[in-house]
């Protein structure tokens, strides 16, 4: 039992591999494979729905006489899960898809139709350009113009990045700091000027810095009363002397 697990087999000294008969395998040989349904389909015999991604044990073979640009096309055989009817589909390298051949119908898929229409439009455009050389020339001119516009835009972006790259950050910081100091100094000067004007108003200093004495309204009234009393006393003394 242990002999079958070894990695190296015994070959006698007189072994000649050229004498070993080679088996001839048919070109349409079928292989057993495990796969998942590549699309949603419905069985034509029992009406059973088979959804995309359902796993099957299938048989695989190479389609004889069909290829696309040298790529082989493979056919797969599966059985319906309800009635065991045979369903076949094959690969479609041209559309990067699968084609349902027999035993089922493929469900409608909007994205698949849109992709096919897009591919068809591209093929029609190519055929139109081949038939009309002037239209092909116009299309090439438009494409070259668009490429030139893109190159110019990239050049502008590169120039802007280069200018930003050569900016001196330290210089910008110093200039900002100087502007900030100047603004602060200006505010301080204005505050000092306002304080000096307020002091002049309160303490009565003139432009030469000399102190000017100011009298209150009460003192002015007292002086006026004293002057009136003095004038009245002088009037009385003159009358008595007369």
Low-confidence stretches are none
Roughly how much helix do the residues carry, as a percent range?
Answer: 40-55%
Count of strand segments: 8
**How big is the Rg?**
54 Å
Topology pattern, helix = H, strand = E: EEEEEEEEHHHH
Instruction: Return the structural class.
Output: alpha+beta
- Largest β sheet strand count, sense and barrel closure: 5 strands, antiparallel
Which strand-content bin applies to the residues? 15-25%
Assembly context of the chains:
single chain
What coarse outline follows from CA principal-axis ratios? elongated
Query: How many helices does DSSP assign?
Result: 4
Sheet with most strands: strand arrangement:
1-4-5-6-7
Beginning-to-end CA distance, first to last residue: 172 Å
Mean pLDDT: 79
Chain-wise SSE layout:
Layout: E1 31-36, E2 41-43, E3 49-50, E4 55-68, E5 71-79, E6 86-92, E7 97-102, E8 104-106, H1 110-131, H2 133-165, H3 169-203, H4 217-241
Antiparallel strand pairs: 1-4, 2-3, 2-8, 4-5, 5-6, 6-7
Helix pairs in contact: 1-2
How would you describe the overall organization of this protein?
It is a single chain. The protein has 242 residues and is an alpha+beta fold. 48% of the residues lie in helices and 21% in strands. It has four helices and eight strands, in the order E-E-E-E-E-E-E-E-H-H-H-H. The protein has helices at 110-131, 133-165, 169-203, 217-241, and strands at 31-36, 41-43, 49-50, 55-68, 71-79, 86-92, 97-102, 104-106. The strands form two sheets. A five-stranded antiparallel β-sheet has the order 1-4-5-6-7, with no helix packed on it. The termini are far apart. The model has no long low-confidence stretch (mean pLDDT 79).
